[in-house]
Amino acid sequence: LEGGEGRTSAYVCEIPPQTSLKPQRHLYEEQIYILNGHGETKMWAEGVPWQSFAWQEYGLFAVPVNVWHQHKNTSDRPARYVAITDAPLVFNLYRNQDFIFNCNFVFKDRYAGDRDYFDGMGKFIGEDLWEGGFIRNIKELDLQKSIYGKGHRRLGLCLSKNSWGAHVGGIEVGGYKKAHRHQGGAHIIIAEGTGYASMWQEGGEMKKLNFQKGSIYSPPEGWWHTHFNTGTEVVLQVAFRTLAGKAVGKNYHSRISVKKGGDMLELEDEDPEIRRVFEEELSKKGIKCTMPEVR
Hints:
This protein is mostly beta strands. The chain has three helices and 19 strands. The protein has helices spanning 87-94, 97-102, 272-284; strands spanning 9-15, 30-36, 38-45, 48-56, 60-63, 68-73, 79-85, 123-126, 129-132, 134-135, 144-145, 152-159, 164-171, 187-192, 195-200, 207-211, 216-217, 224-229, 235-242. Strands 8, 9, 11, 12, 13, 14, 17 and 19 form an eight-stranded mixed β-sheet that branches. The chain has a five-stranded antiparallel β-sheet with strand order 1-7-2-5-10, with no helix packed on it. A three-stranded antiparallel β-sheet has the order 4-3-6, with no helix packed on it. A hairpin with a 6-residue loop joins strand 15 (195-200) and strand 16. The longest helix has 13 residues, at 272-284. The protein is globular and about 60 Å long. The protein starts with 8 loop residues before the first strand and ends in an 11-residue tail after the last helix.
């Protein structure tokens, strides 16, 4: 997708029933969201004990960098996952496929075979930041109040000590997230719900993208964007991007208001057309806007 900006990319993989993929390891980071099906993943490294864990739909995990891993579909139906990687960044840097896939170095500071690494429990390392290797079901996460406004809740995720993280966001019925912008490379997957996203360059035309469960999109570098819920259930998103303070290039501050030098628009600072279009979309379905009035 264009918003990957040569830093990240995505692929969808389907594993046939009762089939294992070939073992692999690589120097790029990879985060995996299970679209459907059941299976298990085994991980190991030289001098590090192997371990495995079972996954299902709505599961989310990250492969520790350069750790051997093998995915298996344990069911009688095809299983699918979508993976977000920073492979473009790594390939453009090293330009040597043999080194990327056959390096023997073990990053034990990131993964040392801890038996609880993929148990799904994890731990909070901040008010709204969770650290761990595996989440069994993102629908069971306790999302926290969000700086992005009344219509949005979120939980930041630091997965497998990678530099590329994620967050799960929930947009309430009749609500939307404050507009913001950030560096390229982010990918957003719709796990539940329906609505649309708006994106625009500073001073440019606003583009509207309708989404539903299974949609994926990637905002380009520096584009303002926001996400709207026009359905009858909470919109659940999984967003993959660099962790705060670890951006490549310009370091945007998408959780700080433009009034304080950041890259988030307060509701009163947004183009009135944003609210007008949103309320018009809701009225078509008889849904009430739950966002605060703008003065």
